[in-house]
Amino acid sequence: MPRATNAQATKKRRKRVIKLAKGYFGNKSRLFRYAKDAVWRAGKFAYRDRKKKKTEFRQLWIIRINAACRPYGISYSRFIAGLNLAQINLNRKSLSELAIHDPVAFKGIVEKAQAALQSKVAA
Asked: Domain spans of the chain?
């Protein structure tokens, strides 16, 4: 099989970039010169935000847990400390889901965390 010439390779590369830029506004979707920059920039943001998404979800779960703990008279940080003392190993995602969908079970966990904190203070 013969190798592609330099011109063929360039054309293939340009077509690939233009295809990736489909849907972009104005010249960024039609002209290679602008599409190349737009695609590179979009890829940079996509890479960064795949990492950032994990941080944002953890922050959301913490906010939800804190809001669910407050009616029981305990802050998020004290709640997590109580969970550690009670050796309850639930991640923040599952705690957040419990707080939203099963408040009765969440209340039980909060009470166990508070009891563990009380027993530490008494000891």
From this structure: 7-122
Structure tokens at 89: 């190993």
CATH of domain 7-122: 1.10.1900.20
CB-CB contact of 75 with 116 (8 Å): no
> What does pTM read for this prediction?
0.79
Q: What is the DSSP letter of 2?
A: P
For residue 41, count CB atoms less than 10 angstroms from its CB and return exposed for 0-12, middle for 13-18, buried for 19 or more.
exposed
Q: Which residues contact 39 (CB under 8 A, 6 or more apart)?
A: 17, 20, 21
pLDDT per residue as tens digits for the range 18-70: 999 999 999 999 999 999 999 999 999 999 999 999 999 999 999 999 999 99
